[in-house]
């Protein structure tokens, strides 16, 4: 009788999740990606404001990452128009998903049909189907509404976020809840800490589902801090803030990169954006039950911005294969 594959649930969104899923695609596991649905910048703003749809950029990236199709089709779904005034900044993939939704009637079915078309190896699910906006409260009491305004602040980005929620309240989808309950391993991150990771945890029912799951829970530390969300954060800061949105007793391990030999040019660019490498200070704060796994996980390939992309993206990223192999260790032991 063939061995049952382990079930890995990745909770996140954006390029960090895309990188991890790209590595997990060919691994011997059943992979489910639970994606945040609160984006409202760039092409997602058009999807929301002009099409009346939920944002699909995170879902689209997950589709490409897990697709077994040839490279041209995958490149098409990543392609971003950069000419003209009406379509510039939009991605082919988001427009395609909008068209399929119009044909089949619901975004849920459109995602399922497109996953079939792309021969996705795994399952991709929105964490929620509710139309909501993120709300961040800062240490000075100021509130900002909207993922994009939190991600690329017009206010003092050194201020710390003290609370994150959504308006109206978002509820976990039944499919996402079932995936969490059935998981052997749950992975949080990498990705923008508040607008990707915490944005999922504040959805009503997500933290409870994680608490009730039998799965191991792993948090993947980001490589760089981020102005506006996690200015000058150390790893202890991330873990402390994470504990405000889920039971810290459910966190089994933290995966930390040790390869910080980044290029001078990349560091200068990040410095100009008030970002620095995340400092591993967990020896001073870690809970005794949490395993700290330190491995060289970064990629030495610098990712240049896409033409027409109005949203800031990470230049330095994890190596997808190294990260996926590190994740697989948690289900092989």
TrEMBL record:
GO biological process entries: regulation of cell shape
Keyword Cytoplasm: yes
Keyword Cytoplasm: yes
GO cellular component: cytoplasm
Keywords for this protein: Cytoplasm
Domain of life per record: Bacteria
UniProt subcellular location: Cytoplasm
SUPFAM superfamilies (UniProt xref): CofD-like
MF terms (GO), sorted A to Z: LPPG:FO 2-phospho-L-lactate transferase activity
InterPro entries according to UniProt: CofD, CofD-like_dom_sf, Gluconeogen_factor
Sequence similarity: Belongs to the gluconeogenesis factor family.
Matching NCBIfam families: CofD_related (TIGR01826)
HAMAP family cross-referenced by the UniProt entry: Gluconeogen_factor
Functional summary from the UniProt entry: Required for morphogenesis under gluconeogenic growth conditions.
Protein name: Putative gluconeogenesis factor
Organism: Candidatus Cerribacteria bacterium 'Amazon FNV 2010 28 9'
